[in-house]
Amino acid sequence: MPRTARRLAGFTESVIRGMTRLANRHGAINLSQGFPDFDPPEALLSALERATRGPHHQYAVTWGAPRFRQALAGKVRRFTGLDLDPDRHFVVTCGSTEAMMASMMAVCDPGDKVVVFSPFYENYAADAILSGAEPIYVHLRAPDFSYDPAELARAFAQGPKAIIVCNPSNPCGKVFTRAELLEILALAEKHDAFVITDEPYEHIVYRPGEHVHCASLPGAFERTITCNSLSKTYSITGWRLGYVQAAPAVIEQVRKVHDFLTVGAAAPLQEAAVAGLELPGSYYEGLLASYAAKRDLFLDVLARTGLTCTVPQGAYYTLLDVSPLGFRTDTEAAEWLIREVGVAGVPGSSFFREPEHRYVRFHFAKKEETLRAAGEKLTRIASR
Ligand code: GLN
C-alpha cells in the first residue's frame, strides 16, 4: 500500500473526541468534549422548523447566506461597535474549527512561524502543521495563566507570521485583559504579524471580567483575524456555524480556502440561526447568569473531592489537579475516572506543550442535574 502524507505523523486524532467515544462505551457522564446537554433557545428551534419548508435546501452563497451575514454584521455592531460590511468583512464557515484552519492556510506559507500560548486548544497544533507553520509556544503560568512579557517579546523577535489568541481561553479559562491585548497588538505591529483570535466563548466571561474584542481596539482591525462560532453562544455545536471576520484583503484569501475546503456551511441552518443573532440583550445576560451558576455548582462539587482545580474567568472548562491520586500519567487518571468513577474528562497534557501531566479537563456546560449526578460519582475520588 502506498504511504500516506508525512505531515500527518506530527499529530494524532483529537484526544477530546476520543474521550467522548470512550465515555460512550463505558456509559460515563461525559464532561470531556465541551457541548451542552440542554436545548438551544426556542426561537432557534422554531426558526429551524420554518427553514425546513423554505427555499434553503441548495448551496447558499459560498461565503455565507446574505441574510445570515447581514444579521451577523448587526450583532457584531451591537456588541463591539464595529460597523462592518456583510459583503466584504465576513466568511461563514463550518464552525470556528474551519474558520481557524482557513485563516491559517490563508496567511501561512510553509516554514512560517506562529506564536501559540500554552496551554492551548488542541486544534491549533494541527492547524499549524497542516498549514505548514511551525508553532513557537509561550507559556501561560498557573494559577492565573499570565504570560511573561519578556518571553512573548522573544517569541515575536523570531519573526512569526501570526499569533493565535484564544479569548476566553479553552482550556484554562483565561480572559485576556485590554492591556494584554494592546501589548500583543503592539508586538504584532512592530514585527508585522497577524493576530488570529478564536472567540467562541465571548459571551461567557464571568463578572467582574469583561470580554474585549481584539479587532475593535485602536488600530487593530487591519491585522486582526477574528474566528468565531455560534456553537457556544446559542448551544448549537452540532449546527457547525462559525465565521471569519477580517479586513477585505484577508477575507478575499480566506474565501478561496473556504470555497475549496467545504463550499459552504449548511444553508437551512444559516437561515434558522438568524433568529439567534437577532435575540435581545437579555438572552446574553441569561446565558451568562446560567453559566455562572453552573460554574459555582461544579467548582463546589470538585471542592468536595479534596482536589484543587482552576477557577475559570471565562468559558466553561476547569482543570482538576489529579496528581495527588498517584497515577503515572493524566491519561491513566482520565481512564480510571471513566471506568471506575463514571465521569469523563480530557487528559490535560493534550493541551500543553510542556510535559504537564497534573490535570484532567472537565467542562460544565450541562444541566444542573447532570452536574449533580457527576458530583455524586466524583465523591468516590475522596475515598481512593
Ligand atoms: N471546543 C469543545 C472542546 O474543547 C469541542 C471541541 C470539538 O469537538 N470541536 O471540548
Count of all domains: 2
The general outline is: globular
Known CATH architecture of the largest domain: 3-Layer(aba) Sandwich
What CATH calls the topology of the largest domain is: Aspartate Aminotransferase, domain 2
Query: Quick one: CATH superfamily of the largest domain?
Result: Type I PLP-dependent aspartate aminotransferase-like (Major domain)
Give the SSE string: HEHHEHEHEEHEHEEEHHHEHEEEH
Mean pLDDT equals 97
Describe, in plain words, how this protein is organized in 3D:
By secondary structure, the protein is an alpha/beta fold. The chain folds into 2 domains: 6-40 and 282-383, Aspartate Aminotransferase, domain 1 (Alpha-Beta Complex); 54-277, Aspartate Aminotransferase, domain 2. The protein has 12 helices and 13 strands. Strands 2-9-8-7-6-3-4-5 form an 8-stranded mixed β-sheet, with helices on both faces. A 3-stranded antiparallel β-sheet has the order 10-13-12. A two-stranded parallel ribbon has the order 1-11. The N and C termini lie far apart (48 Å). The site of glutamine has 6 residues, from helix 1.
Write the layout of secondary structure elements.
Layout: H1 15-26, E1 29-30, H2 42-52, H3 66-80, E2 90-93, H4 95-107, E3 113-118, H5 123-130, E4 134-141, E5 146-147, H6 149-157, E6 162-166, H7 178-190, E7 194-198, E8 224-229, E9 242-245, H8 248-261, H9 267-277, H10 281-303, E10 317-321, H11 330-341, E11 343-344, E12 346-347, E13 359-363, H12 368-378
Parallel strand pairs: 1-11, 3-4, 3-6, 6-7, 7-8
Antiparallel strand pairs: 2-9, 4-5, 8-9, 10-13, 12-13
The chain binds glutamine.
Glutamine is lined by residues 16-17, 33-34, 97, 170.
